[in-house]
Amino acid sequence: MLNPFRGFGAVFYKETLHVRRDFATLFFSLIIPILQMFLLGFGIDTNIRQINTVVYNADGRRESRDLLDRLRNSDTFHIYRYVNNDKDLNDAIISGKCRVGIKIPVDYSDKLLHQMSAQVLVLIDGSDSSVAGQAINVTTAIGLDESLRRVLSSSDAAFAVDMRPKILFNPDSRSPNFFLPGLTAVLLLNVTTFLTAFSIVREKERGTLEQLFVTPVRPMGLLLGKLLPYLVIGFFELSMIVIAMRFIFSVPIHGSVILLAFLSLPYIFVSLSLGILISSKATSQAHAMQLAFLTILPSIFFSGYIFPRETMPKFFYIISYFVPASYFINITRGIILRGAGWTHLWTDALALFLMGSLLLVIAARRFHDKVITT
Amino acid sequence: MTASDQSAISAKNLVRRFGTFTAVNDVSFRVEKGEIFGFLGPNGSGKTTVIKMLTGLLPLTSGTATVQGIDVHDDPEGVRENIGYMSQNFSLYTDLTVTENLTFYGRIYGLSPERLRQRLDEIVQLNGLGPYLNRLAAQLSGGWKQRLALGCAMLHEPKLIFLDEPTAGIDPVARRQLWDLLFELSAHGITFFVTTHYMDEAERCSHVAYIYFGKVIADGTPDALRELPEVNPPGTYRVEISAPHVTSALRVARTVPGVRSATIFGQSIHAQIDDHLDLDHLRAQLTHHNLVVAEIRPLAPSLEDVFVELTYRHQTAQETTTQEPARA
């Protein structure tokens, strides 16, 4: 007699009507993620190339020009300007026009010809640490390489240790390959958490939720009826993102798409539960919006999406374990980039599932207490 | 058949506390089948709390209640199955059409498709919603919204319908039409539990109760309440004084010996006076102050008079009980 899912069909019917009628909201919540994808896919390149460089070449002979050619050919430096004195060299960096300044002293070629150590001054703007790091690495490597070649060419010996690094899974270090699989996790939140939270809070605002509680609808029937349409939308969004990723941004998918779809379920489940939790707390749609953004931020910054989790301070590293996106980003990058399978990823899926269940239980309880006693 | 089976609602000693605050304090009443029961009281007096308790949304702190013969505590689901409820803001889905709103509620109550179609026809016939079926609820005027909400509440043919302030904010014509509809439905044996602020609506109910700070201080038919001895103290009667300048007349009337109380009521004064005060004498007193008096005639107390009197008595009674321990 007591069906715990009572009212599920009716609520599902009504909710799909809402979605259809409010087509604009649906359209934007689907299209904005795709736009974000284009921005990140085409606009962001984390590989540091073509750093603006100012050069004061006081020597000007062939050896100095050879050195500048090597710097230029590394693809790391772009020679923006030549200057003729120290002051202009400094000013170019202070004004921000150039990040690196190179001064080749007047006796550079002479010292080399006399087998003496020639010095080159490299000034680096430290305000962007990754640019500075790259500049140090490349200039040091070029200097070392140049020195070795000069030593070895006279003695006819070979390199003692020859390191041969090989990058697995994203050999060209393409930024879209790194960013887009992670972006999937953040974008899915948009549709699932936001839309569910709004759909429930809207009923609170209208007073229809109170009305529903006076009918024989059971809480589970109500919640599932409301969740299912958004689960379908979330799934649709995921396929759109994956298709765009594969065919527009040419990110190769090394693992099983079916597994990706399957493992996205626990993540969507967590996001939906979060949406319900938010709606149990929020009193208006504006309030729900603020709370939902609160969930977006950790998903971006503490999930490994932009900054590697391993380099975070201990405290934030621990926090990252409580961010659902951390697990899902490992799943998407695992399947898409590393070709990982079920055996590599089941722990992440389990963690997501447990988190989702816990959130749903808390949410359902809060919901029940809140609605009924206020 | 037990006694509770015969009543639509039977509430015994209902108490609801929120922390230390007692929102509903020992409330008992019965609503018989087919009655239009008016539940009145100022805002915050516990009306909505009582409705929530009777519909199984709020657990009772103590007391018992049966609705349509079903115990609220034991089977709240069963209660909700058998009642209709219309909240004060009509709680419609404004982005759905009239038909869609009705269909949704029909499905909630598990009506079969054929039954649903049949009920839709009946409701539309009764409420006159026919021309608006494909209109969005947002585009309906207040009166039509309220009819739609009522339709949603009675789709599953409940024998008892709760209406929480059904006429708040709608125009007088729609208000009149709603009451006509309620009378018609009530004649078919449907019981209504109506909360309202309008005294004229209270007068139309077949049974009224007045709740004041969590306590029911009046309960009975409007006529029975009008005849309560507290309202008609022995040795007094009520009169209506019609005068062109009511405010000046009121000032004077209050000074006449034998006039116990007087208030303005539209273009006239309602006064409670001692038996021995002769009407001609009263008229003479007023005209003595150069006032024109059109008419003075005896009057039965209105429900408003009843509630004012009972509230006043209740307040003074409470003041004395709360002051006594201080004195001792």
Which terms would index this structure?
heterodimer; A: mainly alpha; abc type-2 transporter like fold; four-stranded mixed beta sheet; 14 helices; 6% strand; elongated; B: Rossmann fold; Alpha-Beta Plaits; 2 domains; four-stranded antiparallel beta sheet; 12 helices; globular
Describe what is shown at a glance.
The complex is a heterodimer of chains A (374) and B (328). Chain A is mostly helical.
Topology of helices and strands:
The complex is a heterodimer of chains A (374) and B (328).
Chain A: H1 8-21, H2 23-43, E1 51-57, H3 62-73, E2 77-82, H4 86-94, E3 100-104, H5 108-113, E4 121-124, H6 129-155, H7 175-206, H8 208-213, H9 219-247, H10 257-281, H11 285-301, H12 314-320, H13 324-336, H14 342-373
Parallel strand pairs in A: 1-2, 1-3
Antiparallel strand pairs in A: 3-4
Chain B: H1 3-6, E1 7-18, E2 21-32, E3 36-40, H2 47-54, E4 62-67, E5 70-71, H3 76-81, E6 83-86, H4 98-108, H5 113-127, H6 142-154, E7 160-164, H7 172-187, E8 191-195, H8 199-204, E9 207-212, E10 215-220, H9 222-226, E11 236-242, H10 246-253, E12 259-265, E13 268-274, H11 279-288, E14 295-298, H12 303-327
Parallel strand pairs in B: 3-8, 3-9, 6-7, 7-8
Antiparallel strand pairs in B: 1-2, 1-4, 4-5, 9-10, 11-13, 11-14, 12-13
How would you characterize the overall build of this protein?
The complex is a heterodimer of chains A (374) and B (328). In chain A, helix 10 runs antiparallel to helix 13. In chain A, strand 1, helix 3 and strand 2 form a beta-alpha-beta unit. Chain A has 14 helices and four strands. Chain A has two domains: 238 residues, no CATH class; 105 residues, abc type-2 transporter like fold, CATH 3.40.1710.10. A four-stranded mixed β-sheet of chain A has the order 2-1-3-4, with helices on both faces. The longest helix of chain A has 32 residues. Chain A is mainly alpha-helical and 374 residues long. By secondary structure, chain B is of the alpha/beta class. Chain B folds into two domains: 222 residues, 3-Layer(aba) Sandwich (Rossmann fold), CATH 3.40.50.300; 65 residues, Alpha-Beta Plaits (2-Layer Sandwich), CATH 3.30.70. In chain B, 39% of the residues lie in helices and 27% in strands. Chain B contains twelve helices and 14 strands. In chain B, the strands form three sheets. In chain B, strands 6-7-8-3-9-10 form a six-stranded mixed β-sheet, sandwiched between helices. Chain B has a four-stranded antiparallel β-sheet with strand order 2-1-4-5. In chain B, helix 4 packs parallel to helix 6 and helix 6 packs parallel to helix 7. The C terminus of chain B is likely disordered. The chains are: A mainly alpha (374), B alpha/beta (328).
